[in-house]
Design brief:
The protein is an alpha+beta fold. The protein is 50% helix and 18% strand. It has helices at residues 12-20, 34-46, 59-66, 69-80, 122-138, 149-160, 162-175, 187-197, 202-212, 217-229, 254-257, 261-275, and strands spanning 7-9, 26-30, 52-57, 84-88, 96-99, 104-109, 114-119, 140-141, 233-238, 246-251. It has an eight-stranded mixed beta sheet, sandwiched between helices. A two-stranded antiparallel ribbon has the order 9-10. Helix 2 packs across helix 4 and helix 7 (162-175) packs across helix 12. The longest helix has 17 residues, at 122-138. The radius of gyration is 22 Å and the shape is elongated.
Length: 277
Amino acid sequence: MAISTNTVESSREGLFSDIFANEGGEVFAVGFNAESVEALVEVLADLDDPPRVQLMTEESVLKALRSEFELASMAAELVAAETLSLRTTHELFENALVVMEEVVISVVPTGRTVAGLVSDDGEFVDAVSERWRSVWEVGTEFGLRTPAWSRVADSLTTEFGADMEADFEAMIGAVATPRGTESALDEVEVSVLAAAKHEKMLYDVSTWGEDVGVASRATFSRVKNRLEDQGLIETEKEPIDVGRPRLRLLLGDERLREANADELASVAGSLLSTTGA
């Protein structure tokens, strides 16, 4: 067991690292808010041998997770590895709990610190575990509808090469924002801009995006139209043997063409905000 006494850390990540270090087996995480879910996902992703965590919380919290592509794809990776399971329930959550085999840990955040208050009374631990196990059994499984990060990265490398995958990853990291704020770019816009940087075909990147689960081809087309209308990208027609010519994506603003991947994301976001997109 990782901790057996009350513990205070400066962050949720620090507390969860303490809790889950060297912890095997099955763990229930109950009633986590958005900040705690984010910290949980990041800590589990960094552990070499994480426990199997069954996370049960409010549907709105998991929908917020789904809306953040990079974090959701990390969570999807954990789900695919059977490290993380997600369910929702209509039960009321009095507080956030980590329920383990021998202890129940209450997660209590303050403005600057977060505490893990440990209860190891056997009857109490058994009662809490039994309650939430029964709630879990009738809970609703939550689907992230986001591809695992490794699938995105591997398929990008296979379809378009390691350089474009590296630029996509750098741009996704660059547009990540603190919780509660809104990024100027989403994963589809990043995909289109990365493709334009490498002068790829719209058909190819939109087909990749639909196949891997980033977004539909129709969504890619709408984003392409918006970015082209705002002058961020340009297109060139490429004739094919049969059917209408296909469109090659190009960066349309000199400031974007001169930027590296990290800078490209921030410059594109600034251009979109100034043009009112």
